[in-house]
Design a protein that fits this description.
258 residues, alpha/beta, Metallo-beta-lactamase, Chain A, seven-stranded mixed β-sheet, four-stranded mixed β-sheet, 26% helix, 21% strand, disordered C terminus, binds zinc ion
């Protein structure tokens, strides 16, 4: 489904209700940003076809979790294209390893009894390792997506999390999702890194922030959000709770939920 376009770029949401991924077209190239969880493979493939995207030139994964890189090998083989990720992700993506947060990790302590459920989610279980994985650099991003595309290191969710900003769109992987009028972290490996990453992303004042979970959101959503409460409950790992794909970032529909 087309999210937005300008004279040179088109941004499509091609993931599912639970696990989002995106396709960016620029000139004659199409780049898949994240690949979703393996359980959603056939849906993602048919979503690409629905948007008349029959060829992919490259895949970029925003981090090494299984819901970002879960179909990297499959789509890399299908489209005969390379997969790019930052150096620190390469060995993990090559071997399909979602690095598990240790039990004594502060976030896991906050999650409490929901931790065992959380570790069974596609984000954290092993996935098909990817052979054709190559280092993602600023030059690669520019080569694939033009001079307006910026590679941003946005750690916090994981050490290896990146974002890509192109004009008024930022593809942010699992840096955050917008949930009930609050920009909520999904899993936080490092809180201070995450806060710094959010600040650097919001300074871009994008019209569309496209997350790995949840609806697109914009800079006004950030400014107008309810105060974020630093608490984690069962809901924090409820990835099923979603808003419709068709929702616009400035929609007021979210109001009814709070
Ligand atoms: Zn993740």
């Amino acid at each position: 489904m087309l999210i937005t376009r300008d004279a040179e770029y088109q941004f499509f949401s091609i993931g599912t209700k639970t696990y989002k991924c995106y396709c960016v077209t620029y000139k004659d190239k199409a780049v898949l940003i994240d690949t979703g969880a393996s359980v959603d493979r056939s849906t993602i493939e048919s979503n690409l076809e629905k948007d008349f995207i029959f060829d992919i030139d490259a895949i970029i994964v925003t981090h090494s979790h299984g819901d970002s890189a879960g179909n990297a090998e499959y789509f890399s083989m299908l489209y005969n294209c390379p997969v790019y990720c930052v150096k620190t992700s390469i060995e993990l993506v090559k071997h399909g390893v979602s690095r598990l947060p240790p039990k004594d990790h502060p976030y896991m302590k906050k999650v409490g009894s929901a931790a065992s459920l959380m570790l069974k989610l596609p984000s954290f279980i092993p996935y098909e390792g990817c052979q054709n994985v190559q280092p993602l650099t600023k030059d690669v991003v520019e080569e694939l997506l033009g001079k307006d595309a910026q590679l941003l290191m946005t750690p916090g969710h994981t050490e290896d999390s990146i974002s890509i900003a192109i004009r008024d769109v930022a593809l942010i992987g699992d840096c955050a999702q917008f949930k009930r009028r609050v920009l909520a972290p999904i899993f936080v490996d490092n809180e201070s890194q995450m806060a710094a990453s959010w600040e650097s992303l919001i300074r871009l004042k994008c019209k569309y922030y496209l997350s790995g979970h949840g609806r697109p959101w914009n800079a006004d959503d950030w400014l107008n959000q309810k105060e974020y409460k630093d608490e984690v409950d069962e809901d924090a790992v409820d990835f099923e709770e979603e808003t419709p794909d068709t929702k616009e970032p400035d929609s007021k529909e979210d109001e009814s939920k709070s």
